[in-house]
Amino acid sequence: MPTIETNGIQLHYELRGEGEPLLLIMGITAPGSVWEPHVADWQAHFQCIIADNRGVGFSDKPAGPYSSEEMADDYAGLLDHLGIQRVAVVGCSMGSIIAQQLAIRHPDKVKSLVLMCPWARCDAYAKGVFEAMVQAKARYTPEEFSLHIQLLIFSKSHWDKPEALKSLEEGRIADGLNPYPQPLHGLVGQAAACINHQAVAELSTIGCPTLVIGGKADIFTPVWMAQEVADGIAGSELFLYDDLGHAFHFENTPDFNPRVRQWLIDNG
């Protein structure tokens, strides 16, 4: 995986596939490799650009706090390095706030936006969720912390499936064996970016085609957050899966992959 210097850090990235460029920005705690179930489909249609956010994976992990604006500028530098003038962007959770800021701060670089389980501001409950995440990271074993995250992002309907339970257990075991875990200070920095993101007033400046997509059973970033983002971006589309949670894209990958792929093609 190549590394470039951007915005004062070393950022690791990977290119997969050929075609129109598609920038994928993952959420809090997660490296870019988490996109794999989606890249496996999308790389046949796009050149997927996958990076590790600052604070995780093989990218630099400076002391925080980080900001969504700062992290958007990380990606603007990556696009400049790659010589890409305009790009479609898919951002998941924390990646969605980075994508918002990329479109706000660098509008000429963004051709279209898919904002997965997004928010434009945190209320007191959301701030508490992120603060509890940091406290759990500080106190739990890696497997225990993995369970904490799973309980936040997967819906009851997913936990009720026996085959899903096995997959969740395997995921916790894998996280416990991860040789490159996210350090606590990396999570602290990312959590600060999530808590302090405030873009309600600036959403109206986003003029590119935008799809806001989420799950109606999301307890991590509830429906009101997605609705507020969609309401703030003129002409945006909103789609919410019934009974699915924050990880709707993993819970129903067979629908999510082609749905987003076709939307990106139609809005290319």
Automatic annotation (TrEMBL):
Residues 21-252 form the AB hydrolase-1 domain. InterPro entries: AB_hydrolase (IPR050471), AB_hydrolase_1 (IPR000073), AB_hydrolase_fold (IPR029058). Gene3D superfamilies: alpha/beta hydrolase. Coiled coil: none annotated. This is Pimeloyl-ACP methyl ester carboxylesterase.
